[in-house]
Design a protein that fits this description.
With 729 residues, the chain is α/β, with parallel strands linked by helices. The protein is built from 32 helices and 20 strands. A hairpin with a 2-residue loop joins strand 8 and strand 9.
């Protein structure tokens, strides 16, 4: 049996201590004294005294990859099967399994692992080691566990070629596929980092990925964030120290007024890595993508998995979470309305509250401030109201929405979603005022300092100006493409276009990020309503607000003139030149316009055309588009060239906009009461059912009230102080 004592720090090692160390090293295959010294010295800089522990299903290549990693680091390599179990048992693993049976085998295997110790080595676990909790806890104490994640279909093919017909846990009533799927829960429990190993990846490439993953795990200082108004070569505008993911989650907005972006950009996935996710569930895809974007020093993989499963587990009505539905011709709908509040905002705002609660310090209370043009409000209120009671005591949320600038159902939903730690405030102005007011509050250091000193409360944001809110949206754009591949609509690598109704620019920016990460998106098409400042900007390069006034429409989430996330896009196409972004922002604020060259595609849709699209699509297919999706459908019809599929983001459920739907379908006279509108939609049997959560929310909370404020900064700040006093004091 292998037993390697823990190495001493380099500065304390002497010739005598090395000789003593060699005498205590008793492998089944001898290792020369010179090799011990060389292996310790070469591997110490990467892992020190820790082990690199390779974990994965049988057939994942742990033994071969482990040997290559060991050669590259010039350090001991230990295969649990060959060097520990078979040496301990004096028989082969297959003979032991046949001798004692499944349950006893796991116990004896775990016992052997508990008696094993090593340092500075590469260890290849068995496929069943992770099923023994005590054994894994023991071995994990002194190691970095690397999960070799191989698709089940690839594993089954490998095992067949290896003529392996039985693994631990398999029986006549349990198939090989079922046992491999069952084991995934144990692998997810223990790993620190994951590498994706598709079917065509070589062991050499996998070994390099292991080393890269371990280096990333140990170097969190490389994954910092900067303000969009600072440059990558120097932080001239953002004077703060390094910011990490957990910092930007809690801070929200940079101190210079810019938005946080990853200093070194987003991770890139290879084609093989994306292909390994084709058969994965939405939750599995989300975890893989977010793990690569969030360093484990900020949120460990096991905690991130818990957050994702909580967010997308029972809170979404559709098991596919974000299904892709064929509409007509080469057009497909990405349905983003199956969450609890019936809009795409649920994808970020079911996750963000749990991320926020994990990242913030326990010594301070936090008030989340959010500006909303409609859908964000109810999603924020719902998401933060689902926190554990202890977290709700220290985290509250207040949303500001244009009192007369959202649909009646949206307003009723926001009022109905109020809870003990979540409040909504109507503002007698438009969304642009609400958003600007919140930015001014965040950058008012005197006011935020006063709240901290006087009330022990810090402010944070949950709009898509918060990086953690935007990041989960990248997942569904990537997942939609993978679904089309899985449905055999396209082979992997063939391009698609995406068309997205766009207001604050977060959703289309997330698609652009997915493209940067390796998803073959050809064109990102920005769809506007009559508030078409973005369309004009994308077509002409000129962002011009002079003389523009907001036009209320039936697609209120697009009723925005100043798009916050556009600043992240500008930073991207300016190659990280924060000074240019600052100049453009100041020019827009002071002169009402700026000009820049960029490469998106855009179109806009009138109210008349929006309603006509709802009617024509329903007449042809029986499917009802909401008003925002109808805007995107009209623009897609005009701009697509039909040489590839186009994915239209369906951002909300049609029942949130009942008056416009009833008007478009010419069903009946429209009652102003939101609950009556939903009842009317429900009673019309040819229509698909109204959203599962919307009707219940309005039924239960229809008589509740909310606070209304004038468009005055002092009144908004007073409302904030009142909430803090009532909830935290």
């Amino acid at each position: 049996m292998f037993h390697i004592v823990q190495y001493q720090p380099l500065r304390l090692i002497t010739q005598n201590s090395l000789s003593s160390m060699y005498l205590k090293l008793m492998p089944s295959r001898p290792i020369a004294f010179a090799q011990i010294w060389k292996s310790w010295f070469s591997s110490h800089s990467l892992v020190g005294n820790k082990n690199i522990i390779l974990m994965g299903p049988p057939g994942a290549g742990k033994t071969t990859i482990g040997r290559i990693v060991g050669q590259k680091l010039d350090c001991p390599v230990i295969d649990i099967d060959d060097d520990v179990l078979e040496t301990t048992w004096n028989m082969s693993v297959s003979e032991k399994l046949q001798d004692v049976g499944n349950e006893q085998f796991l116990e004896e295997e775990g016992k052997a692992l508990l008696e094993f110790s090593a340092s500075g080595s590469v260890i290849s676990l068995t496929g069943s080691n992770p099923m023994h909790a005590a054994g894994m806890q023991h071995v994990k104490k002194n190691g970095i566990v690397v999960y070799l994640d191989v698709p089940i279909t690839v594993i089954m093919s490998r095992l067949k070629s290896m003529k392996v017909d039985r693994i631990v846990g398999q029986s006549p009533s349990v198939s090989l596929k079922d046992i491999l799927q069952f084991r995934k829960q144990f692998y997810k429990r223990w790993y620190d980092v994951r590498i994706l190993c598709g079917g065509d990846i070589t062991a050499e490439v996998a070994a390099e990925k292991v080393l890269d993953a371990v280096k990333r795990y140990q170097n969190s200082e490389l994954e910092t964030f900067i303000s969009t108004r600072s440059s990558r070569s120097g932080r001239s505008m953002e004077k703060d120290s390094d910011k990490y993911f957990s910092d930007v989650v809690t801070q929200g907005l940079a101190s210079d007024g810019g938005l946080f972006v990853p200093e070194r950009g987003l991770p890139n996935f290879t084609a093989g890595e994306w292909q390994s996710l084709i058969e994965a569930t939405y939750v599995e895809r989300a975890q893989v993508i977010l793990e690569r974007c969030i360093h484990p020093a900020d949120i460990p993989a096991s905690k991130l998995a818990e957050i994702i499963e909580t967010a997308y587990g029972e809170n979404f009505a559709c098991s596919k979470i974000a299904p892709v539905r064929h509409l007509t011709g080469n057009q497909f709908l990405l349905e983003l309305f199956h969450g609890p509040t019936a809009s795409f905002k649920d994808f970020g705002l079911q996750i963000v509250p749990h991320i926020f609660a994990y990242c913030i310090p326990r010594s301070c209370n936090y008030l989340i401030l959010v500006a909303t043009s409609g859908d964000t409000g109810s999603a924020v209120l719902d998401g933060f109201s689902r926190l554990h009671d202890t977290d709700k005591q220290r985290i509250a949320v207040m949303i500001f929405f244009p009192e007369d600038g959202v649909s009646p159902i949206q307003k009723s939903q926001m009022i109905g979603c109020q809870k003990e730690n979540a409040w909504s405030v109507g503002v007698k102005s438009d969304f642009d005022f609400c958003q600007t007011a919140i930015k001014q509050i965040f950058t008012n250091s005197d006011y935020t300092g006063f709240l901290t000193v006087e009330y022990g409360t810090a402010l944070a944001a949950a709009n898509s100006i918060n990086w953690a809110r935007l990041l989960p949206q990248v997942v569904y754009h990537a997942s939609a493409y993978l679904d089309l591949v899985h449905q055999d609509v396209i082979p992997f690598g063939s391009p698609v276009d995406v068309c997205i109704p766009t207001g604050n620019f977060g959703n289309i920016l997330a698609a652009f990020y997915a493209k940067m990460m390796g998803i073959p998106i050809r064109k990102c098409i920005c769809a506007s309503n009559e508030n078409n400042v973005l369309t004009d900007f994308i077509r002409t390069g000129v962002y011009d607000l002079r003389g523009r006034k907001l036009v209320p429409t039936s697609s209120p989430a697009v009723d925005i003139l100043k798009s916050s996330n556009l600043e992240r896009y500008l930073h991207l196409i300016a190659n990280g030149d924060g000074q240019l972004v600052t100049q453009l922002h100041n020019q827009l604020e002071n002169q009402g316009h700026f000009q820049l060259q960029q490469d998106l595609v855009a179109g806009w849709c009138s109210e008349e055309d929006c309603l006509a699209a709802i009617h024509s699509v329903y007449s042809a297919t029986g499917y009802i588009l909401d008003t925002h999706t109808a805007v995107a459908k009209v623009v897609a019809d005009r701009l697509q060239d039909r040489t590839c599929p186009i994915i239209i983001s369906s951002t909300a459920h049609y029942s949130k906009f009942a008056p416009a739907i009833l008007r478009a379908l010419k069903i009946a006279e429209i009652n102003q009461n939101p609950l009556s509108q939903l009842h009317l939609l429900s009673s019309y049997s040819p229509l698909p059912p109204v959203h599962w959560g919307l009707l219940e929310t309005l039924k239960k909370k229809s008589n509740e009230d909310h606070q209304v404020c004038a468009a005055d900064m002092s009144m908004l700040m007073s409302a904030i102080e009142t909430l803090i006093q009532n909830h935290f004091m």
